[in-house]
Amino acid sequence: MLTKVRGSSFILESGVFILEGESGVFIGRGEAGGRAEAGGDARRRTTGTRLPSALVALLAVAALGLAACGGSPGGAAASDGTLTVYSGRSEELVGPLLAQFTEETGIRLDVRYGDTAELAAQILEEGQATPAEVFFAQDAGALGAVAAGGVAVPLPADVTDLVPSAYVGPERLWVAVTGRARSFIWNPTVMGEQPRPQTVLDLTAPQWAGKVAIAPTNASFQAFVTALRRSVGEAAAEEWLRGLVANEVRTYEKNSQIVEAADRGEIGIGLINHYYVMQVSKGLGRPLRAELGFFAPGDVGSLVNVAGVLQTTTGARDPDALTFIAWLLAPAAQDFFVTQTNEYAVIDGAAQPSGVPPLSTLQGPDVDLADLVDLPGTIDLLGRVGLL
């Protein structure tokens, strides 16, 4: 039984409780049927801020899962205290946050890190038998591909209502966790007096020969190419990519390597996600000798993509999956992304990263993130033009 004791606080006869107070939201265990205090083995959800009521209600449902003694045929099983996550986000970026989740909830994460596109393909190959319970992807295209493959289940509206509808997948099959803007890194010394480009489509012109860098194996670049195909058509997208190859485009494995190359003066301009500039600068312990830039509003080079999560059909049988997803959308986790990885928060009222335009002011191309699902077609195209 779930009993509301005051405000948004709940206690179960089994002793599992969730409390919302001035200092945060707590989940833990107390005496069965007795008064639950936010202490002992309580797991603190957030500090110094009040969660949205919808999220508190969802966590109460998760608490019911923690209290369950067993599952019924066809129903949700009890929490086993472990959760398998396939993460296209690197361990370097999100490892500390995931460790914090385990510390606060007691739920142990079995994380498989890898390339987002490769993990998406792995889940689709594994199908309904996938060990993955949550897929934490670097871009909307990979989330859409897995969802289209029938391996995802709809998320509760209480979860998806926490973010703008533009950052929710069709049928609520995935939800954004952070926003990331496509941008470029610019070395003014290498480029001299040359004006900054207004459109990414200009980078095949002769004046850019040997000065442009991309990361064709990176999921974010592949999502951009998918948006390019949707925006200008297949033939024009292929022509642009072949133009880059003919223009002696420099290729790197990672966005961070492109930023480092621009800092060293190896390239003049590189296509990246915005937050890598701040991350590389932080790692070097100094300002970069290169600058962050954005293409004109509405240009396909200004695509605003997301990192996000989905719950697999396997995860639908484990209440820990929804606990994890809800936790990622709580203010404390959102603040981590803003302050530690410099990404955009997606929930209302959250702080935004410094040194970049507000997310609300960024204007990408007229391409729905749900339309970025054809990742296989993009990979095939990149292979045909010699970039993979």
Features:
388 residues, alpha+beta, D-Maltodextrin-Binding Protein, domain 2, 3 domains, 11-stranded mixed sheet, 13 helices, disordered N terminus
Return the CATH topology of the largest domain.
D-Maltodextrin-Binding Protein, domain 2
Count of DSSP helices?
13
Low-confidence segments, ≥5 residues, pLDDT <50? Answer: 1-54, 63-75
What composes the largest sheet? 11 strands, mixed
Can you offer a commentary on this structure?
This protein has 388 residues and is α+β, with helices and mostly antiparallel strands. The chain folds into three domains: 2-67, no CATH class; 82-179 and 305-361, 3-Layer(aba) Sandwich (D-Maltodextrin-Binding Protein, domain 2); 180-303 and 365-384, 3-Layer(aba) Sandwich (D-Maltodextrin-Binding Protein, domain 2). The chain has 13 helices and 16 strands. The protein has helices spanning 53-67, 91-105, 116-126, 140-148, 157-160, 188-191, 219-232, 234-246, 255-264, 275-284, 319-328, 331-341, 375-384; strands spanning 2-6, 9-12, 16-21, 24-29, 43-44, 82-87, 108-113, 134-137, 152-153, 175-186, 212-214, 250-251, 269-273, 291-293, 304-312, 344-345. Strands 6, 7, 8, 9, 10, 11, 12, 13, 14, 15 and 16 form an eleven-stranded mixed beta sheet that branches. It has a five-stranded antiparallel beta sheet with strand order 1-2-3-4-5. A hairpin with a 2-residue loop joins β3 and β4. α7 packs across α13 (375-384). It starts with a strand and ends with a helix. 48% of the residues are buried. The model is unreliable at 1-54 and 63-75 (pLDDT under 50).
